[in-house]
């Protein structure tokens, strides 16, 4: 079976084509194409501008994906699209595009939960069996484990997602959004040497990131008034922009490692799977690996092809659902900004 997947819940438009062999075995990625809407430094991406970008690029990306996959429309079994969660206007653009293809090609539609797409693609690529999942992105921060055909959320962000925290601080520093603000924060953090004291807010299994963002924004404003750097009141060391990025990363990642370890202890798992755009961060992977190895466990993660929003994850999760008889009627092919991970029944898992 072959599915084409459309992803556009935020500023990345992805189109993927995947094949599931008829007799089982590993999925085959036939095409995985992505185009990103990049806003100017110091600015975020507005829903209306992002939606316009998706409408402009979707047709050419679909054509390119079919060519790269070496297939025709007749080979496609279903059209999968991101139903939610995400930004309203971009989601609508993708949903309309999926409906257009469904009507034009006379193919079934399958609406996919964005979070489930990340998890299922991560499991497929890494081979992780039944891990605790840390899902970290610009819009979501969740610690998840599987039970009774649903992904159960053990902990999550109480306010803004960790990726949103990093992205907004990149805007504070007027850092480029190309290729991604979080990536540029990561590169700057590698040059940091001084760990500053920032709020650390873990409440049971949940995290809060708005306070730490407000605190480091104050430090950034202080640094802007002293471009050559200001001295830490305790150590007397000169503080730089790189130190701010380093301190922010170390603190928020330590919070994520703590709640993930607590979930591992609760469910008795020795595997961690990191998914979502922030999951590309090598420092986060390193910190998580140190924790897991201390527990005799292991960490699974993917590179930017699959961590960052992409169409292939939607195609894969959609085809898993399609093979169990789940489809989305044209009248139900809507989208929603609020679609929790634990709302989806995993008919394809025991």
Report strand %. 15-25%
Oligomer: single chain
Radius of gyration: 21 Å
| Average predicted local confidence, pLDDT | 96
- Which spans of ≥5 residues are poorly predicted at pLDDT below 50? none
Number of strands: 14
Could you give the distance between the termini?
Answer: 21 Å
Q: Helix- and strand-based class?
A: alpha/beta
Q: Could you give the order of strands across the largest sheet? A: 3-2-1-4-5
Order of helices and strands: EEEHEHEHEEEHHEEHEEHEHEHH
Give helix % range.
40-55%
Largest sheet: 5 strands, mixed
Number of helices: 10
Offer a concise description of the structure.
With 350 residues, this protein is α/β, with parallel strands linked by helices. It has helices at 47-69, 88-105, 114-126, 162-172, 181-189, 210-225, 241-267, 282-294, 304-307, 311-323, and strands spanning 2-7, 12-19, 28-36, 78-84, 108-113, 132-136, 141-147, 150-156, 202-203, 206-207, 230-231, 238-239, 271-275, 298-301.
